C-alpha cells in the first residue's frame, strides 16, 4: 500500500489566489505528490466534477477526498468522527492521539504550528511534539508549515510528509512555493520512522 508522503496539498477554494484547479496544477508541477480535496460544503455534483478535474492533473490514485465518499476514486481522508467506509483501498484520518485508527492507513497530526487558516486552533505541537504522539501509521504534519525550515523540521521529526493548505492556496506563485517546500522536506535529514510513499 502506497500512502501519502512528501508534499500533500489540502484544497481551500475560498482562500486560493486563483481558480482552484489552476492553483493545484501549479503546486503539482512544483512537486506536490498528493492532493486532499476538501470543499465539503459544495453540492455533490459540483464536488464530484471538481474531483474529476483535479484527478486529471495528478498521477492515478493520488487524489484523496475528505469525507467517507471517494467521489468515484479510491482514497478518502476522514475527520475524527467520520465513519470508516468499507471497500476503500486508502483511508486516512485526522488524528490527535486518541481517535481509533482501526482500518486507517495514514494520519494527519495537527496543529504542528499555529495557522492563519484556523486561528485559535492549538496549542501548537511543534514537529517534535507531533512525533511524540507516536502515530502507529505513517503521519503527515499539518498546520502552519509555511517555510522550508518548518518543512525540514517535520522531515527530521519523522513525518512521512507535510500537508499544506494556506501557504499554497494563498501563494501568488504556488508552483514556486511547492518546489521550495517539497525540496526542503525531501532533502532534510531523515527522521525515525519516516516513510509512507516517499
Annotation keywords:
8 strands; 6 helices; ThiamineP_synth_TenI; alpha/beta; 198 residues
| CATH architecture label | Alpha-Beta Barrel
Oligomer: single chain
**Tally of DSSP β-strands:** 8
Largest sheet: 8 strands, parallel, barrel
How much of the residues is beta strand, in percent? Answer: 15-25%
Q: How many distinct folded domains? A: 1
Coarse structural class? alpha/beta
Percent in helix: 25-40%
Radius of gyration: 15 Å
Q: What is the CATH first-level class name?
A: Alpha Beta
Q: Let me know the average pLDDT.
A: 92
Unreliable spans: 193-198
CATH third-level topology? TIM Barrel
Summed up, the helix count is 6
End-to-end span in angstroms? Answer: 12 Å
Helix-strand pattern: EHEHEEEEHEHEHH
What form results from the Cα inertia axes? globular
What spatial order of strands do you see in the largest sheet? 1-2-3-4-5-6-7-8
- For the record, what is the CATH homologous superfamily label? Aldolase class I
Overview of this protein structure:
The chain is α/β, with parallel strands linked by helices. The protein has a single domain, classed as TIM Barrel. Helix 1 packs parallel to helix 6 and helix 4 runs parallel beside helix 6. The protein starts with 5 loop residues before the first strand and ends in an 11-residue tail after the last helix. The C terminus is likely disordered. Keywords: Thiamine biosynthesis. It comes from Actinoplanes lobatus. GO terms for molecular function: thiamine-phosphate diphosphorylase activity.
Amino acid at each position: 500500500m502506497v500512502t501519502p508522503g512528501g508534499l500533500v496539498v489540502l484544497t481551500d477554494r475560498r482562500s486560493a489566489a486563483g481558480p482552484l484547479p489552476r492553483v493545484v496544477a501549479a503546486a503539482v508541477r512544483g512537486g506536490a505528490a498528493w492532493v486532499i480535496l476538501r470543499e465539503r460544503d459544495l453540492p455533490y455534483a459540483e464536488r464530484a466534477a471538481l474531483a474529476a478535474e483535479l484527478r486529471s492533473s495528478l498521477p492515478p490514485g493520488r487524489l484523496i477526498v475528505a469525507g467517507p465518499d471517494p467521489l468515484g476514486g479510491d482514497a478518502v481522508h476522514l475527520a475524527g468522527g467520520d465513519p470508516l467506509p468499507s471497500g476503500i483501498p486508502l483511508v486516512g484520518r485526522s488524528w490527535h492521539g486518541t481517535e481509533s485508527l482501526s482500518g486507517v492507513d495514514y494520519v494527519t497530526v495537527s496543529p504542528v504550528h499555529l495557522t492563519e487558516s484556523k486561528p485559535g486552533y492549538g496549542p501548537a505541537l511543534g514537529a517534535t511534539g507531533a512525533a511524540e504522539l507516536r502515530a502507529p501509521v505513517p503521519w503527515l504534519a499539518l498546520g502552519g508549515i509555511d517555510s522550508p525550515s518548518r518543512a525540514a523540521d517535520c522531515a527530521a521529526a519523522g513525518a512521512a510528509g507535510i500537508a499544506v493548505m494556506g501557504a499554497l492556496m494563498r501563494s501568488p506563485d504556488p508552483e514556486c512555493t511547492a518546489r521550495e517546500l517539497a525540496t526542503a522536506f525531501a532533502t532534510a535529514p531523515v527522521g525515525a520512522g519516516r516513510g509512507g510513499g516517499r
